[in-house]
Amino acid sequence: MTQRGSQRVRRPRRTEGSSARRAEGAPARRPQLARRVAAGKARLRRSQGKPGAGAARVLGMSTTRRAAVLAIVVCALAFTVAVPLRTYLAQRAEVAEQEQRQAQLQHDVQLLEQRKAAVSDPAQVEAEARRRLRYVMPGETPYIVQLPGEGAVPPAGQAPDPVASGDAAWYQQLWSTVGG
Questions:
Q1: Contacts of 53 (CB under 8 A, 6+ apart)
Q2: CA 109 from centroid of its chain's CA atoms
Q3: Number of Cβ atoms within 10 Å of the Cβ of 17
Q4: Where would I find the H helices in the chain?
Q5: 124, 118 in Cβ contact below 8 A?
Q6: Is-contact 54 47, C-beta < 8 A?
Q7: Taken in order 121, 127, 130, 135, is the CA torsion positive or negative?
Q8: pLDDT for the residue numbered 50
Q9: With bands split at pLDDT 50, 70 and 90, how would you rate the model's confidence at 173?
Q10: What is the mean pLDDT of residues 12-35?
Q11: For position 101, what pLDDT does the model report?
């Protein structure tokens, strides 16, 4: 009996028999391997029962770490989108401002074209020359009516006194009051 324990008896390998024995549920030759396979199957069955457990096991991260990674990804996307979005909004504001300016300039052009049409009329030119420049046609007698509110025109031979009329500079008015 002492020899029996020390010597190993080798059994011939049977390819069909051994696979058939494992398929029927017989224990494998190596018990450690059988335990590992059984533990893996049990783990697989447990993870199939929970809906989110598979992703956690595959990624190897806890819920907190996954949330942190998700927050970092969201922040990165926000920063990636923020600069182009700010540029887009600034350009839209600038386009709106330029369109408003263009509308104002078109309105000014219309007014100037109307003024050009009015000035091209000889009767309008004559009326402007009479009113602004006080021109008269040859043979007409000009009359100037001065109302009390308007500035008086000095006689032709006399120069206007700037101090008396209030057109002088402040220091000239001061000196005239001091000097008498």
A1: 46, 47
A2: 33
A3: 10
A4: 2-6, 15-23, 31-49, 53-59, 63-119, 122-133, 162-165, 170-179
A5: yes
A6: yes
A7: positive
A8: 55
A9: confident
A10: 57
A11: 98
Please count the CA atoms within 13 angstroms of the CA of 107 that sit on its side-chain side: 6
Alpha-carbon span 111 to 98, nearest angstrom: 20
Phi/psi for 149 (5° steps) reads: -80, -25
Tens of pLDDT, residues 62-120: 889 999 999 999 999 999 999 999 999 999 999 999 999 999 999 999 999 998 988 88
Q: At what angle do helices 63-119 and 122-133 cross, to 10 degrees?
A: 90
Would you tell me how many other CB atoms lie within 10 Å of the CB of residue 47? 16
Q: Do the beta carbons of residue 31 and residue 38 sit within 8 Å? A: no
The set of residues, in sequence order, having a beta carbon less than 8 Å from that of 160 and lying 6+ positions away, is 154, 167
Residues counted in the chain: 180
